[in-house]
Specification:
The protein is built from 15 helices and 39 strands. The chain is α+β, with helices and mostly antiparallel strands and 735 residues long. A hairpin with an 8-residue loop joins β33 and β34.
Length: 735
């Protein structure tokens, strides 16, 4: 798989070929880490989003081998008495061959009864310890219904208070990466699968499920693409392509929440932009539609960051003046004004007073923040305390929001979730409190649920794998308690769907690339502390960059090509990247070293990253190597974005340069061409995170990418000595 044998000289100098082969043999045969198979379970899940009793499902088990040796063994499938094995064997042999890093086994099963059932697999390799994983699956009640070519009409239920749900419209077919955290949490898989929201039938299902459980409107996040001219939107397909073409659009109302959080892009350029571009667009495209949410003859406009408008317009007073003019323009358009609701998830009286001074009518929360990974009881109490404290301050009226959970997009910060029974209790208490609010206020007539479909961020009530329709049934019991029994349909019940083919195809291609990258290749270097080694010397069209440390930590190439390198071929970094999937072996080290060869013709690069594992949401963990202010940089943070070690000399242009960073537990050191160019005190270990390693860029398709060629990247769980680094740097480039 190597196209250039010359690269081997980096480790073995000018030794004769026979001697080098003998050293390679020793490296392989004497390394205990590389001599053992290490089998683990990568995935054990059903092939359908949501399971039903008396319906066939296929279970897929993906095994990974992290060791150097091919392995074989058996897998035992354990099923409860109510789940029957239809196809496959309870004891199934497996065998890794030819260095393969992954393989998949499948079984077809059927549950005879609804309910939550525990299934399990036990993997028994010939060598090594058994590995077991359980899978708790909810099987919905069986249904017998004829296939149909269209969704049955919704049967809305009446409620004693208006119930709405925040709606996150991020799930477009050209944004498959948005599902990344759901892959890590398959229990969140929506009933529609990894759907493409622009399909009208997706909106049909969402409307049917919502109104049949008492939710009568959605508040869609609404994004402006640019400001200062005619309105262009982004992420608007859930409204414009799906809802506006839905068969059931007259069955549900909607409102928008202006997501003005991108400064200078998604807000307003000035008052004229607000009153002559943005507001008329809303009036004509949304407020005038018969299903827009209008109360007291006033459309409701939710604003995500109202305080940002102060910078947009220049002062609090100017924002208040613009809002007053907006109310008058809405009256001229035939309404009795407009209700302006500002998002705030706290109880600081100064901030609430600021919102009042801006001219807002109400405060609301998109989600309630609850710190310290609370229990369900703590999460309920904290939310009710927010709600009650806001009312006690009596500064700005509120529309109550209740939140189901939170995780962040990459499981950062406080993580919590209310099961349906606890969410039901929270809704009952919130409803009772809303009834105590002054009857003329919106807060006595509306409750907001957080969130319909924030699948990645961890707050969602739409039907999904773990709890099925559990949250929606709780909503129905609380707000439509006298409603008759009903049948919760899934698309496959009537032969419709799927709605996730583009996303499914994307992740299938990624899975195939990952499997290729995990292929074992013979190590080039004898060093037990060498964690990963990428030479980029594969064939030009190969989508994987193999790991020549023997640890199967290969990377997947994305929009990046190979060119002539320091030795053999290198990555041509112009915005593309290599992604190394997250793995527990990639950090959490007491010591580390990273080294590579780079070449660039572009001077004064700044905030450009060569090897990165430090990201927003994980800014206190990981490590990275890059360029700041034209100089090499090495970072191992302790606090957010801390400990950037920047070299004292600029990066040369027009030739290959050896860069290395080391960390011994107390001191970070940075080397260029074998010479130390900076050091910084830093204690503690390199903290782990669940992010990938990105090579050649900060992140996939990011602007903060290195410009140049990159070759011979190595990671170690030890400190390279100054002599070792100097010796590497002294080796000449291949002619």
């Amino acid at each position: 798989m190597m196209t250039s044998v010359a690269k081997h000289r980096m480790s073995f100098g000018h030794a004769p070929a026979r001697a080098r082969l003998f050293i390679l043999f020793l490296a392989f045969s004497l390394s205990p880490a590389l001599g053992a198979a290490q089998i683990k379970i990568l995935e054990f899940q059903p092939d359908v989003p949501v399971c039903r009793a008396e319906r066939l499902i296929t279970l897929h088990l993906t095994l990974g081998n992290d060791g150097a040796r091919d392995e074989q063994g058996t897998v035992e499938l354990h099923l409860p008495p109510v789940v029957e094995l239809i196809k496959g064997n309870r004891n199934t042999p497996f065998a890794f061959r030819d260095g393969a890093g992954e393989l998949t086994l499948s079984w077809t099963v059927q549950a005879s009864q609804e309910g939550r059932h525990e299934l399990a697999v036990e993997v028994k390799p010939v060598s090594g310890s058994p590995v077991r994983q359980t899978l708790n699956l909810l099987f919905l009640p069986s249904v017998t219904i004829e296939k149909a070519d269209r969704i049955p009409d919704p049967q809305p239920v009446a409620t004693d208070i208006l119930v709405g749900a925040h709606h996150c419209p991020l799930w477009e077919k050209d944004r498959p990466e948005i599902w990344r955290n759901v892959i890590r949490h398959p229990e969140r898989t929506p009933a529609l699968g990894f759907y493409c929201q622009e399909q009208p039938e997706v909106a049909d299902w969402e409307t049917k499920w919502a109104v049949e459980h008492g939710i009568s409107f959605f508040v869609y996040c609404w994004y402006r693409a640019s400001q200062g001219g005619p309105v262009e939107t982004r992420l608007s397909s859930a409204i414009h392509e799906a809802l506006f073409h839905s068969r059931f659009q007259d069955k549900i109302r909607f409102a928008i929440m202006w997501e003005n959080q991108r400064r200078g892009v998604a807000g307003i350029a000035n008052e004229e932009d607000f009153l002559q571009n943005l507001l008329p667009y809303w009036i004509e495209n949304y407020f005038r539609r018969p299903n827009y949410l209008i109360i007291d003859r006033k459309p409701l406009l939710f604003i995500y960051r109202p305080e940002y408008l102060i910078q947009d317009l220049g002062s609090v007073e100017k924002v208040a003046q613009a809002f007053a003019k907006a109310r008058e323009l809405c009256r001229q358009a035939g309404f009795d004004g407009i209700y302006l609701l500002g998002e705030y998830r706290g109880t600081n009286p100064k901030h609430l007073q600021l919102m009042k001074d801006l001219g807002l009518d109400y405060t609301f929360a998109y989600v309630w923040p609850v710190p310290n990974n609370p229990s369900p009881e703590e999460a309920i109490r904290a939310q009710l305390d927010y709600i009650k404290k806001t009312q006690e301050l009596n500064i700005l009226p509120q529309v109550i929001t209740v939140s189901q959970g939170w995780s962040g997009w990459r499981d950062e910060g406080s993580i919590w979730k209310l099961p349906p029974e606890d969410f039901e209790r929270l809704m009952r208490e919130a409803k009772a409190f809303a009834k105590t609010l002054p009857p003329e206020q919106l807060g006595s007539r509306i409750i907001l649920l957080d969130n319909w479909n924030e699948w990645g961020e961890g707050h969602y009530i739409g039907p999904h794998r773990e709890f099925g329709f559990g949250y929606l049934d709780a909503v129905r019991r609380v707000f439509a308690g006298n409603a008759a029994t009903h049948l919760d349909l899934l698309p496959e019940d009537i032969g419709l769907g799927p709605y996730d083919l583009p996303i499914r195809a994307y992740y299938q291609r990624e899975r195939e690339s990952r499997q290729k990258a995990r292929t074992w290749v013979k190590p080039i270097v004898s060093d037990e502390a060498l964690v990963a080694y990428w030479t980029f010397d594969e064939n030009k069209d190969e989508v994987a960059a193999f790991d020549y440390s023997g640890h199967r930590l290969g990377g997947i190439l994305h929009q990046i090509e190979r060119v002539k390198g320091w030795r053999g071929t290198a990555l041509d970094c112009r915005g593309g990247s290599m992604i190394v999937p997250t793995d527990e072996r990639l950090s959490d080290w007491a010591q580390m070293s990273v080294e590579c060869w780079i070449r660039t013709d572009q001077p004064d690069q700044d905030n450009r990253w060569i090897i990165n594992r430090v990201f927003g949401g994980a800014e206190t963990s990981g490590f990275r190597l890059g360029i700041l202010r034209g100089r090499p940089s090495f970072q191992i943070p302790v606090t957010a974005w801390s400990h950037h070690l920047v070299g004292k000399e600029p990066l040369p242009q027009g030739r290959w340069v050896h860069i290395a960073g080391t960390f011994d537990g107390t001191t970070m050191r940075l080397y260029m061409d074998g010479h130390e160019v900076g050091r910084m005190e830093r204690s503690g270990s390199v903290r782990n995170n669940n992010r990938p390693i990105v090579v050649g860029n900060y992140d996939v398709d990011h602007a903060a990418h290195f410009v140049g060629e990159l070759d011979e990247v190595r990671l170690y769980s030890r400190v390279l000595t100054p002599e070792e680094i100097a010796s590497r740097a002294a080796q000449p480039a291949e002619k």
